[in-house]
């Protein structure tokens, strides 16, 4: 809450604002000069109080609130000097004394009023705090957008490396299975040669070892067929991903094409038949089955060679140079972001400002990206480094999102409190305007001129009410903009928009010099709306403070 001394200073300033509104210029100069002199006196009193309060508060360094208030008063005093408000008020007074009612004078009065409004905002410390909070949120949102973009780029680049790594693994696994298939082929040929030497008939003790060996070959070849089926599924997935990346529709495998796994499975089947015949002491009939096993194993080796050659061709197609360039570009963008986030921590006068969430994670991603780019330049995949960089960027995004959630909650709390103060001030002003309208309506009944028109002085006073209502309309418009920027409070904008429309209507009626009961009733409706808003805001703040 604002310190009582600052509240008094702000109240004095609002009092000084009233006589110098651009529509308050009278047709008779003497009252206007008096009003302007009153404004100067009040403003002089204000600045003296501000300086006195600042000295008192500066002595009370132990009180954090006092230190904050002293800073606010110092900022206000400095603004008075920089904006040369005292000189500006003297200039306006001089023009009024000279009875200069031209557009230039009106512009000077409007400019002076704007300066005083700005000073009021500084003293209330309302808009600056919210503006800084909004700027902080906007800053972190931009950082998060950049982090998310880099994380997506890194994910895409990792997928390219993942394909290269998967092709390399496919080649390695296929070469290993080809070695196994060749070993089984050599063993089958050896069993076939021994079987052929036995002739038509052989002793049972001669065929039994061959039957056992054939059974072992069958088991090993069946296991090879299972492994090859998994290898083929891996290749099919890679082919489908490649076609999808190229914008082509993946096609299912053609029926009837068994691949190396199919050939190995047929070899295992032939080995089973050969083993059974050898177990029945029939070496000669088993030779045909052994030949089938050999043929299928040879086919298995050939198809594995084809798979290896195709995978190598696909690997050579991968643009490692382009991948390295893209990774280098992403690394540079990440490094730039890291520096921007670090620079954002620098406060005024070289002091350290607020830490930037996610900065360390972004910094940790850079060396991983640098290592990945170097690996890709050697025509090697860099999936792990890229995965690490991606995870760091995603962690940075999460930290930023958590910080933004806290700031948005803080913003909502600040907006609610600022609006409560704003609407409370508006209600006090509206009540004064409503009373003034009622008094003016009573006065006009007795001061009409002979032709039934309003005297100029009375018209001026009603115009002053219209100006006040118009100023409140501007206040409502500013409150609505604040709610729209904050963006999370869903209920209040609609009510404030209705308040703005009410004030616009009342101001319009007053500009027509109307003060009748209808106008007064509409002013009461404005008061009711303001009271509704204030009560609703207070309930919301209390509920949030209570954790509900």
Q: Please, could you describe this protein's structure?
A:
The model is unreliable at 1-30 (pLDDT under 50). The chain has 548 residues and is an all-alpha fold. The protein has three domains: 1-125; 163-318, Up-down Bundle (Four Helix Bundle (Hemerythrin (Met), subunit A)); 405-548, Four Helix Bundle (Hemerythrin (Met), subunit A) (Up-down Bundle), CATH 1.20.120. Helices cover 83% and strands 0% of the residues. It has 15 helices and no strands. The longest helix has 72 residues, at 127-198.
Shape verdict:
rod-shaped
Structural class: mainly alpha
CATH architecture of the largest domain: Up-down Bundle
- How many strands, what sense, and barrel or not for the largest sheet? none
The stretches of 5 or more residues where confidence is low (pLDDT under 50) are: 1-30
What is the count of DSSP helices, taking H or I runs of 4+ residues? 15
Q: How many strand units?
A: 0
Order of helices and strands: HHHHHHHHHHHHHHH
As an assembly, this protein is single chain
Write out the CATH superfamily name of the largest domain: Flagellar protein FliS
Q: In whole angstroms, how far apart are the ends?
A: 22 Å
Q: Briefly note the CATH topology name of the largest domain.
A: Four Helix Bundle (Hemerythrin (Met), subunit A)
Give the proportion of residues in helices.
over 70%
Number of domains: 3
Strand content: under 5%
CATH class of the largest domain: Mainly Alpha
Gyration radius from CA atoms, angstroms: 44 Å
Mean pLDDT: 82
């Amino acid at each position: 809450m604002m310190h009582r001394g600052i509240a008094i200073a702000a109240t004095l300033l609002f009092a000084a604002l009233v006589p110098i509104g651009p529509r308050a210029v009278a047709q008779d100069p003497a009252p206007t000069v008096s009003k302007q002199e009153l404004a100067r006196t009040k403003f002089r009193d204000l600045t003296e109080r501000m300086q006195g309060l600042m000295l008192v508060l500066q002595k009370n360094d132990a009180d954090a609130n006092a230190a904050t208030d002293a800073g606010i008063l110092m900022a206000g005093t400095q603004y008075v000097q920089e904006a040369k408000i005292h000189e500006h008020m003297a200039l306006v007074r001089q023009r009024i004394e000279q009875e200069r009612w031209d557009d230039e004078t009106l512009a000077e009065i409007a400019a002076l009023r704007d300066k005083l409004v700005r000073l009021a905002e500084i003293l209330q410390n309302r808009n600056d705090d919210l503006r800084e909070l909004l700027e902080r949120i906007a800053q972190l949102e931009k950082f998060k957008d950049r982090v998310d973009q880099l994380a997506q780029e890194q994910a895409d680049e990792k997928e390219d490396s993942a394909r290269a790594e998967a092709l390399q693994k496919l080649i390695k696994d296929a070469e290993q299975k080809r070695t196994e298939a060749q070993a089984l082929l050599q063993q089958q040929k050896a069993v076939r040669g021994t079987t052929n030497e036995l002739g038509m008939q052989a002793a049972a003790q001669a065929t039994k070892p061959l039957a056992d060996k054939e059974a072992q070959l069958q088991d090993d070849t069946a296991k090879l067929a299972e492994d090859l089926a998994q290898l083929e599924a891996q290749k099919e997935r890679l082919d489908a991903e490649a076609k999808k990346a190229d914008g082509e529709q993946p096609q299912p495998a053609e029926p009837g094409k068994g691949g190396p796994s199919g050939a190995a499975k047929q070899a295992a089947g032939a080995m089973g038949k050969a083993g059974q015949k050898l177990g029945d002491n029939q070496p000669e009939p088993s030779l045909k089955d052994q030949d089938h096993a050999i043929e299928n194993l040879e086919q298995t080796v050939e198809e594995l060679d084809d798979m290896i050659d195709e995978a190598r061709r696909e690997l050579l197609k991968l643009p490692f140079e382009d991948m390295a360039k893209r990774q280098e570009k992403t690394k540079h963008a990440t490094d730039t972001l890291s520096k921007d986030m670090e620079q954002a921590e620098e406060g005024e006068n070289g002091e350290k400002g607020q830490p930037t969430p996610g900065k360390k994670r972004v910094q940790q991603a850079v060396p991983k990206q640098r290592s990945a780019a170097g690996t890709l330049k050697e025509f090697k995949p860099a999936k792990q480094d890229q995965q690490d960089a991606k995870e760091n960027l995603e962690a940075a995004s999460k930290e930023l999102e958590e910080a933004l959630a806290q700031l948005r909650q803080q913003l909502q709390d600040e907006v609610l409190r600022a609006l409560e103060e704003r609407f409370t001030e508006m209600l006090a002003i509206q009540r004064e305007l409503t009373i003034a309208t009622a008094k003016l309506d009573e006065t006009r009944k007795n001061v009409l001129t002979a032709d039934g028109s309003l005297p100029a002085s009375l018209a001026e006073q009603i115009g002053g009410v219209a100006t006040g209502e118009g100023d409140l309309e501007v206040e409502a418009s500013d409150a609505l903009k604040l709610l729209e920027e904050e963006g999370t409070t869903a209920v209040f904008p609609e009510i404030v928009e209705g308040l703005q429309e009410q004030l616009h209507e009342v101001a319009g009626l007053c500009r027509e010099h109307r003060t009748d009961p209808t106008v007064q009733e509409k002013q009461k409706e404005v008061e009711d709306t303001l009271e509704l808003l204030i009560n609703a805001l207070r309930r919301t703040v209390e509920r949030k403070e209570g954790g509900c």
